[in-house]
Structure formats: C-alpha cells, structure tokens
C-alpha cells in the first residue's frame, strides 16, 4: 500500500489493547434477555457487527470482566481461530458489553487517530493477509497476541484526512445499514400478519364476537375485514369508494376465515383447519453435490458464516470447497440445524440454480407448491415451529447442538385452507422480493466500498473537505471519451494470468479487478471454462457497441476510474435520454446487449441480456420480461421490431425521441 503518509507503530497510539474471557459459572451466568452483551468471534465481521448468536450475561459475571468493558469508539478484532483478523467497530446499540477471550479491544488515542480509519485500514486485503500470516506463524492454531497487534505498522495521515476517508466509506455502510433495517421491518410485518391470521386467529375471533353480540353474517364479515386491515367501519366505507378493487380483495380474504372454532390436540383451532405433518407442504431435500469435482467452477455458496455476514452467498471455487454440499433450489427455505437456539432461517435469492449449494448444517425445505413459499416460511419462523425444532435437538449443551431434520419434517403444523395459504403468500411475496433486492443492493454497495478502500488508503483517490471522492480525469475535460476512460481502467488491471485464483471471497475477486457475479464465459476470457465475470469482458461488450459508445461519450459525472460501471450505465443513459425518461438497470443492460450491427433475434438478445443481468446482481430475466422491456423501449423510440411476430429487433441508429441529449 503506497502513499506519502508516515508509518507508525500502532501500539504507540493506543490507550488499550486487551482481550477478555469466558465468564465462569456455566449456563447460570447467561441470560436469554439482559443488559450486558458478551461479544464473541461469531459477532465480529469486516463488514460490520453481527448480532446473530449474541448472548447476554448477568451483572455479576460482567463485573468480573470489568477490565474488558467495551466503549463506543472501540475497535474489535478476532484474535484466534479461523476468523482471526476480522475487525469491526463496537456496536453502539449493544452496549454495555464485554468481550470473551477470542476477541480483543483496540482503543486508539482519539487525538491521534480516527477509530473508524484504523478499522478500515486493518480490514484491507493487504492487512488481512499480513495479520493472518502473523497469526499462523509457529503455532498449531491461528492466534494474534497483544504484542503482535502493538507492533503493527499503520499509515498516519492527519486527523482531518483520516476523518474524510472514514466518512466516505461510512456513508456506504450507512446505506447498507438502512437496507438491513428496512428488511427487519418487512420481516416484522410479515411475521405480525402471520401471527394475527394463523396463530392468534384474530379474523376468526372477530367474526365469532360479532355473531355472539347478535350481529348478522354481514356484521361478522365486516368485523373480520376490520381485523385484517386495521381500519374502522368509516375507513372501510371510504376504501370501498376510493379503491373498490382493494375493498373487494379484502372482502374476499375475510370470507375465507371461518366463524367458529373446533377442538384439536393443540386446543381450539378454527373450524375446517387441520393438523398435518410439515412434510405435506415442504419436502426435506438433501440432494448431494461435490463441488471439488468441478474445481474451476464458481459455486454460489450458502453457508452459516455467509448468513451471519449479511445473508449474501459466498462465491467460491470448487477447488476450495472440500466437503459435500446440498444443491439449493430457487424456492427453498434453509433452516440451520446447528445450534438452533440461535435461529437462522434463510430464503435464498438464487442467481444460478446450476451452481447454488448450501452447507449440510442447513435443513433445506422445498415447498411442495412453490407459490406458497411465503406461507411455508411463516410456518418455519413461527414461535411454535422454532420451539418444536428445539425439542428435536441432540448433542451436548455446548456449541455443537443439532436438530434432527427428519423429525422436524414430520412435526405437525396447523394448516388453513388452500385459498388462505395462497392469499397470504401473494400478499407477502412483494415484501420477500423487496428484501432480496435490498440484500442485492447492500452487496453491491459493499463491493463499491471494498473497491474504494485500498484506493483511498493508498492516496490514489483523494477526498476534499466536503468528504467527496475525486480524482483527475483525462486532460481534466468536462466531456470524456469513453475509450479513454476504458483504457485508463484497463491499464490498472493485472495480467490475464492473475485472474485464475483459488481464494474464495468476493474481496479477492475485487482485488483482481473483477466485478459482478458469476457467469459462464468460455474461450480465452474463461481461462479454460472457469466461471466468473471479469471487467475486460464487460469492457469488450461496451467497446463493440458503436451506438452505445456514442451515448457514453456524453458527460461522465464523478468518474473515478474505479472498475464499477454497471450503475454508471444507467446513470449515463438516463442523463442522455432526458429527465422524463428513466431506465432501470435491467432495461439499460438490454440496450447494451444489442450487437454492433444493431439487429438481433430475441433468442440471442435474451441470452446476452441474461448474462449481463446476472453479472449485475439483478433479478433474472425471462422471455416474457424481455418482451415487456422491448415494448417499453419501442414506445420510447429506442428500438423497433423487424417483423410482426416480434422475433427480431433493431436498435435505432439514433435515439429519436423528445428530450434526448445527443453527444
């Protein structure tokens, strides 16, 4: 990491460096709910603090660990085991807290160092490799000592520069946190609706109470509509006037709830509902895959660490995956059987069904009817189901308890009518897609952060007093030639031979200049058929499209030379097209997929578009979606069909429509 900033010994600028301990006293010192958090290695990630598996300890146990009390601006670093060197900031929302013996506190002098800057420095690929090398030297288990941390060399810009760099990177992380918070809210809404309908039976009880009070069947129906919607009678009347379609949907839903209860083994349940084995609505699938048999293939790997690290899969080469895995199906629901007292339920957003795998520590349940995935997920996440999992656990009371999948699959669950299951799933499906979209966006933001990080710390990219990244563009012109920008980026890439790697994280791919997600690229670009997407492949697509080169010759705002252009495609196209027309990324990529001669059969266009859309981490594209996009572009005057069957399309020579800005 080259820069003109001085290098200093980290220990000379620290107020404290020290690790904690595991509280003595066994299980009795832990609390299900409490005020004192005990932070362990599974909570510390370079991407940020993870509350998954967080435990709490009693006040008396915390007092014995007073010397490792965590403060708000502390840096936490894992110092032992496979997770050694992972680093994050202390989580404000989980203080007061202590750390155990696997985590160390680094408390820097705030008059000399910005703590966030130090954290980002320690999380760079270069420093992570260095720390791992130090930790693995001369020992059977990875471990970092206090003196080794103290002796680390760190660059030392002035405090203002440190703060500006940290602010630039933190702004991306803040957006990631917002996405995570939105997802938590969406999840709470889904669970609240499921509990109201299928656990507390509120619409059923509303009908029963209305009838018991002497009301008519219509009164009972209106009472159920109120319970479902949260609206009073006056608001329902207004809804019928303002949105009759919504009102009728609500009424149809309310009609499906019975108006009486019946006895069952679980006590009273709604009339007509029944108890059946969970396997009747979701099959337990254990289809085995051996990734090592395809060593150069990149696998979409759903693992326990990946779940804890923001619920985004890792993309690992087969050669690095030593054990067998389960094949993951697009509609599946993954439930951790390892230590189920820390619930982990994952609805994977599968990018490539031919490459998606998961850890055998997951139980994979595939809905018998894929359109009921949301309902099945609601069942799995319900308190009664989670309690049932805990009752089917084997192993000690330590850290290796496992649920028994076959027993879980045969648990009895309460099933409402088929129609109600479908309606709930349709209602919740958009929320699931929003959650998946937020995770994809968070992953893209993390990729941007990881790409910016070494450039900011090396001084290659500069920040000014307003904390905005800037860099000099070719000749400092307001308008920049696309080929010049591409060449500038290409010159920063390592030799092609460096692109075949055997390290598994996306950080490694970004270090080598790759962007996006995996796709099959054959020939020279594929390095013998390996599956990954490289920046040169994207640039090649861009260069070969003369029409779009003209578009990209327009003004490029805030260009930094960072190899991250997918968002730039949409930004520049929308700038070119004018304020009234806004294309999303998928639509922009369809334009990019047209060949140099501008005419393409829809089958070829679908193939090209699907590859680039997968690389951009966007929702998959099918023929119906593509046809819809092409018709939208036709209405904008950007493409035209060559035949009445719409099997062949042409990109217009010039984008002729009102408001276009031409280069």
UniProtKB/TrEMBL annotation:
Record bears the keyword Cytoplasm: no
**Organism's domain of life?**
Bacteria
So what family is this one in? Belongs to the type-I restriction system S methylase family.
Q: Cite a single Pfam family from the UniProt record.
A: Methylase_S
Residue span(s) of domain Type I restriction modification DNA specificity? 3-188
* Entry-linked PANTHER family: TYPE I RESTRICTION ENZYME HINDI SPECIFICITY SUBUNIT, TYPE-1 RESTRICTION ENZYME ECOKI SPECIFICITY PROTEIN
Q: Looking at the keywords, is DNA-binding present? A: yes
Name this protein carries in UniProt: Type I restriction-modification system, S subunit, EcoA family protein
Q: Which organism is it from?
A: Idiomarina baltica OS145
Q: Which CDD domains match?
A: RMtype1_S_EcoJA65PI-TRD1-CR1_like
Tell me which InterPro entries the record gives: Restrct_endonuc_typeI_TRD, Restrct_endonuc_typeI_TRD_sf, Type-I_RS_S_subunit
UniProt entry keywords in alphabetical sequence: DNA-binding, Restriction system
